[in-house]
Design brief:
It comes from Polyangium jinanense. This is Response regulator. By secondary structure, the chain is of the alpha/beta class. It has a single domain, classed as Response regulator (Rossmann fold). Helices cover 46% and strands 19% of the residues. A 5-stranded parallel β-sheet has the order 2-1-3-4-5, with helices on both faces.
Amino acid sequence: MDNASIRVLVIDENPTSAGDLASFLSAHHYDVSTCSALDGARSAVSSRRPHVLVLATKDHPHAEVEEVRKVYPRLPLVLLTEEAGQELLLDVEAFAPAVPACPARGLGHIESAVEAAAHFS
């Protein structure tokens, strides 16, 4: 699957960071849409049928990932989080297919995670 055919939905309550990531991915030929909450994701998923979800987590990444997985158990997920360690690994394993990405490592790192996650779809 080439990047132009990969549909990505970025779920981030911060419109600035969502817009920056969407612009970066679009410039690399991904078909990107954004929404600010999981409620908005429902309509975006049904209308756009993304191949990959990108979830920017805040205070409780485990709870957010669990909620996403209840609704979209098979959609590959890129989990944007500053957390690391065993708990994050358990989240990623429990809610596969999921790929962690650290925003502090840059937009290119996130793009690599999106590309890896797209192979699960």
